[in-house]
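Input set for joint prediction.
Command: fold jointly, output tokens.
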Amino acid sequence: MRDDAGVIEVPGAGQLVVSVDSVVAGIHVDLSVCSPEDVGWKALMGALSDLAAMGSPPLGALIALCVPGGAGDGEVALGVMGGVAEAAVASGCPIVGGDVSSSPELVVAVTVLGTVDGPGDDGEPGPVSRSGAVAGDALFVTGPCGGSAAGLRALRSGANAPTAEMAYRRPVARLREGALARRCGARAMIDVSDGLALDLHRLADASGVGFRLDEVPVAAGATLDEALGGGEDYELVLAVGEGDVSGLTERSEAEGLRIPLRIGTVLADGDVRVLGDQELERMGWQHRLG
Amino acid sequence: MRDDAGVIEVPGAGQLVVSVDSVVAGIHVDLSVCSPEDVGWKALMGALSDLAAMGSPPLGALIALCVPGGAGDGEVALGVMGGVAEAAVASGCPIVGGDVSSSPELVVAVTVLGTVDGPGDDGEPGPVSRSGAVAGDALFVTGPCGGSAAGLRALRSGANAPTAEMAYRRPVARLREGALARRCGARAMIDVSDGLALDLHRLADASGVGFRLDEVPVAAGATLDEALGGGEDYELVLAVGEGDVSGLTERSEAEGLRIPLRIGTVLADGDVRVLGDQELERMGWQHRLG
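tokens >
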């Protein structure tokens, strides 16, 4: 029920948004289809996505890297840190601390810090939780889903699907879209880390509401099941009051950000969770194929 | 050469002191002689010690816990988090985020956040680095060293040495001593994580100075080698200008804190690093017996 990121009060200094996330080789990433650089990139972006879902710009990240001690693992460590550095530049999030240990398996634990109290944010809304959706809100997603799962499938089968492969290997946290949605009055947000269906259920659980999903934007090359249950897309699901919809859409366009796609409506009855007229299963990461 | 903790500027909100540290079973802790609760305690205290060495009170900690997925490991995870919680209470550091994954080996990565800009700190000195020592400074340590190494030795041999065992299983970060030393004008600090000798060399390296060590306070039951090279004592080494020595001593006594023990003097010549009239080896964690 809780948000991916926590909020702490810094005495005399407003709110800090914080989150930690681990990537373990063999559990969260398949090293036979992605490079150490990819692992580093995915680890940082996955953690940053939790800040994006709160609408918080990043202040910095700390990396705990555990690498097996065998031959060539210095290269693995350098590769992972190279991927972390690329993601840090791409997302505007400096790396402010790190620690390297040996361990039997590659583990990358990433802590991210953010704040919504930066310059120009005076009087603007605080961090957005997943619990604020109310009946009648419009549901949006910042982009089509399932690309990451389709990419993993393609990489494993040897199919040629470069766009999907990049979605798996180099996902992007929607930091600017999340921050804009917060400023535009989004009432609840969550990132699609474990699957659109499961993450939407979580938002509905936390908010005590139901939903009707009218559309499922499916990424090129992905199946509907992958869009609903694939995860690691890191698109954001937003609940927005009708009165704020046009502002959000216009400002997204004006700022050159992804235009949120309308996918459904929040319902008062928490027991009603439907796609069209079918009940929507809690499909998600647990169910992932492969 | 860098400090264990980093400092980041929060826009409009002063400085945040941050650090991350990992504990890997079989590498940093020996699960045959300490419990999951001990591992959790040691992981948080080890990370907090990096804040102590900057003179920074803690704001909060985030825990990434990776546990093997086999039978009984739910209990390991609960045990580790129980020990983390005990250390959090003992140190006044709330746990503000966490993540649990499975992995082949137990890994606990702890990120700690602190600030020296809290209420009552207006105009007081910023975080203390390890690089500010100058020739003529007095060197202090907040307590005798080697207790942790002696405790590990006793636990492995089955000897009865409860005080030393507690020093190994339940070390204490010297947060209040570090904060007071900062307020009293300490010019450089480092915590004894890898051994008094090695950590003192690191302080001297960062400051571009030498030192003469006159005394090595040895913990009860420990050997001189354990005091110099044992590590995980988490006492603080301080370089203090002569003019600030009496203030530090008096305020430590007045506030009921550990009275720093004078161990030597900072020298201008960076090549002179002696214990009495012998060159002091860079002995430390790398050399640890067992």
